[in-house]
Write a structure and sequence with these properties.
By secondary structure, the chain is mainly α. The protein has two domains: 179 residues, Growth Hormone, Chain: A; 190 residues, Up-down Bundle (Growth Hormone, Chain: A), CATH 1.20.1250. It is built from 17 helices and no strands. Helix 11 runs parallel beside helix 16. The longest helix is centred in the middle third of the chain and has 34 residues. The N terminus and C terminus are likely disordered.
């Protein structure tokens, strides 16, 4: 099958493995932190501290992972991610104390660096070059259901078998489902040639310094977006309760974030694919601040805020993969993506703790912090010129 003709096949394949990878790693603590802490005799926040360590390891490993995918393609790296995540899950399932817990999450951090969105995006770019945008969007569209699948499945496994068995079953999923699918990825030779020609903006006189500032600006945008996304994932029901609604209503409203993410990604896939990714990124950074203003100042229902936040988060996830590709081209995409997303991983690691303190001190007023971060991101995106998009394939 020709490489271009395999776009749908690869999108489906990586959509499945990304959904399972996110479900069996990033989304585990929300369900398993409490039973883990109870059985291991520690405070729940120490489980999240170990998870934060894993995100810092993910950030540190990201550039190296991207470089390897740039050189050799994604089949070996993504296959290794399945093995590494499985090993980490087994260690978590066998942990008898803090040492085993930390070691398990540390290995999980390396596995997440090798196997989550950044590695998948770099793999698609390695195969399709600049034509990877549609496939990237398709993968995020499918994997948007990771929490929808992962949280109920993990909760059911924990209720029926226990948290240790839940970890071991997810490890088996990595070995029996994800690993064989990753071995079906294209060989190193199966790729679209990636030109070393510079972007037209460079030919038009834009300096290397200006391009570095664009990189720094994007790094801030993604760090702000990931900080807000993780803060909301950790605290959204409690935050919504600060507006005076019941826990049941807050949980029901928070459950709309996932469908809103998927809906926004579908809209981008169907309606905005011909537009510059800057358009989607700018819209994405507006939606959370808009929702916060309507919620706090005008008393909009909590469900409305959850939908606006989820839609913005869904669009920004796509932009994180497609915007650097459009601005800088496909050559060196993996390594560049690793450096761009590294600050976002650090922000993710710190976000639950920092926003939790702000929420305790300010209540729903903490939304002005997250809104301010994203409005600054919008201002940064407004300073990026769309003509930088004219990258030759």
């Amino acid at each position: 099958m020709a490489i271009v003709g395999s776009s749908v096949r690869l999108t489906m394949l990586l959509g499945v493995t990304q959904t399972l990878a996110w479900a069996s790693s990033y989304y585990l603590p929300a369900i398993l932190a409490t039973p883990m802490a109870a059985e291991l005799g520690m405070k729940r926040h120490w489980v999240f501290a170990a998870f934060s360590l894993s995100l810092l390891i993910t950030a540190a490993c990201g550039p190296w992972v991207g470089q390897r995918i740039d050189r050799f393609g994604g089949r070996k790296m993504l296959s290794l991610s399945s093995l590494t995540l499985a090993a980490g899950l087994v260690l978590l399932g066998l942990a008898q104390g803090a040492t085993g817990l930390v070691l398990g999450w540390a290995i999980m951090g390396a596995g997440m660096a090798m196997g989550l969105y950044d590695a998948a995006f770099a793999t698609l770019t390695r195969v399709f070059g600049r034509d990877a945008r549609r496939a990237i969007t398709g993968v995020t569209l499918m994997a948007g259901f990771a929490s929808t699948l992962g949280w109920p499945m993990t909760a059911w496994l924990n209720d029926v078998f226990g948290w240790r068995e839940a970890c071991l079953i997810w490890a088996a999923v990595q070995l029996l489902v994800c690993l064989p699918l990753h071995r079906c990825l294209p060989n190193e030779e199966e790729r679209q040639a990636v030109s070393s020609a510079p972007p037209e903006d460079a030919e038009a006189g834009e300096s290397a310094t200006a391009r570095r500032w664009t990189m720094a600006g994007l790094a801030y945008v993604f760090a702000a977006g990931w900080f807000v996304s993780t803060a909301m994932a950790a605290h959204l029901p409690g935050l919504l309760q600060e507006t005076g609604i019941s826990l049941a209503t807050a949980v029901a409203a928070a459950a709309l974030v996932g469908p809103a993410q998927v809906g926004a990604r579908f809209a981008e896939f169907a309606l905005m694919r011909q537009a510059h990714p800057l358009v989607a990124a700018r819209v994405a950074t507006c939606l959370h601040p808009l929702g916060a203003a309507l919620l706090v100042a005008l008393g909009m229902p909590a469900a409305g805020f959850a939908i606006l936040h989820g839609a913005g988060n869904g669009l920004l996830t796509i932009a994180a993969g497609t915007l650097p590709l459009t601005l800088f081209g496909a050559r060196g995409y993996g390594a560049r993506q690793g450096w761009l997303i590294a600050p976002a991983r650090v922000a993710q690691a710190l976000s639950p703790w920092l926003f939790g303190m702000m929420l305790s001190a300010w209540g729903a007023g903490a939304l002005w912090l997250t809104s301010g971060l994203l409005l600054a991101a919008l201002a940064t995106l407004m300073m990026i010129r769309t003509r930088s998009a004219a990258v030759r394939p």
